[in-house]
Design goal:
Layout: E1 2-6, H1 13-22, E2 26-31, H2 34-41, H3 53-64, E3 68-72, H4 79-89, E4 93-96, H5 103-106, H6 110-134, E5 139-145, E6 160-165, E7 168-173, H7 181-200, E8 203-209, E9 211-213, H8 239-249, E10 253-256, E11 262-267, H9 268-280, E12 288-293, E13 296-299, H10 300-313, E14 320-323, H11 341-344, H12 354-366
The structure holds nicotinamide-adenine-dinucleotide.
Amino acid sequence: MKVLILGGDGYLGWPTAMYLSKKGHDVAVLDNYIKRFWESQAEVEPLTPVNNLNKRIKIWENLTQNKIKLFLGDISENSRFLNNTISDFKPEAIIHYAEQPSAPFSMISQHNCIETQRNNVLGTLNLIFAIQRNNPDIHIIKLGTMGEYGTPNIDIEEGWLKINHNGRSDKVLYPKRPPSFYHLSKVHDSANLEFVCRSWDFRVTDLNQGIVYGIETDETIIDDRLCTSFHYDQYFGTVLNRFIVQAYLGIPLTVYGKGGQTRGMLNIKDTLKCVEIALNNPASKGEFRVFNQFTEQFTVLELAKKVKKACIMIGKEVDIGLYPNPRKELDNHYFNAKHSALVDLGLEPEYLNEDFIIKMINTVSKYSERIDPSIIEPTHFWNNKSAR
Ligand SMILES: NC(=O)c1ccc[n+]([C@@H]2O[C@H](COP(=O)([O-])OP(=O)(O)OC[C@H]3O[C@@H](n4cnc5c(N)ncnc54)[C@H](O)[C@@H]3O)[C@@H](O)[C@H]2O)c1
């Protein structure tokens, strides 16, 4: 299949490009390197030294004879560029990762909030119009997040909710209660995409993804120069990825509050499999299809305990630190989210265990000289007093 990956320089975009290219798909990646700019604004760097896309694509081609096409440009500001890319490459499916991906980053200031929503919402709107002009049959596979739902006191369905009200029934988009301006940008995207499915017969799969962990995939390990961008800082590092670097350093794991927050999680290798499943089983014309993309759920404290247990197995001491929660979120809440659709379509999950955690700690040790301990502790609080 001809697949265009928006956000191909990112943590998930680059491994997806290699994975699909190895499977024989005709892959193109698009990016504008804005994440690298946001990193420098936040004064952080990934743990891994990430080559630019030109270099990584050449290395990949030399090693595997698989070609990946590259388009460099901004989808949120340059609608003509996006339009031309789609008209040149003629993709059958577009995987849309190209958004500002961090909730804490979106909560730093008015500027960060607006930058996040501008970039994310306008990028998706430009995509919608570029597809409308070129070929409304293109399947959009859009990355949303489980965080969009918030933590309601009822079961979370896969995108849609059947309701009975005053004797009548209907099916509505599941009511969302997002916890940050970032998550809100994803909710706005979903509303826009659902609208064009209803109005213009688009086909969209919205992947409400849980928190991804992991540093390697079967393709990144072929050569160190193909590694993906891996963060461990308070803004761009996801929870388990942060804990692994903290465990390596032997500093207390940064559990926020009491650690009772329950979240859906998945291995980066499962992200690739899920996206592939969506690609091979496209949404129907006019269908806004939602999959809850996670494989297991843990409380933050359970995760920290797993990391501590893995450390004990290798003779490493690490404490669990309880930090004041910089976020506004429930510490103790109901969480029961359906996530059967991808498994029904054939997903075989990778489950988290101590051996995997030990492997991650070993991988992190390869990059130990690049670790900056000063970017680990949360310094920014999400309450309205600290927002600038
Ligand atoms: N990593 C996770 O745990 C996770 C969980 C749930 C959802 N997601 C979503 O998955 C997607 C990918 O996440 P990631 O962790 O790979 O993020 P990432 O920041 O590493 O990758 C996103 C890429 O998109 C590019 N980009 C952003 N805006 C762009 C624009 N306007 N034009 C062109 N390129 C642009 C960035 O430069 C970056 O390379 C994001 O939408 C994120 O919200 C990620």
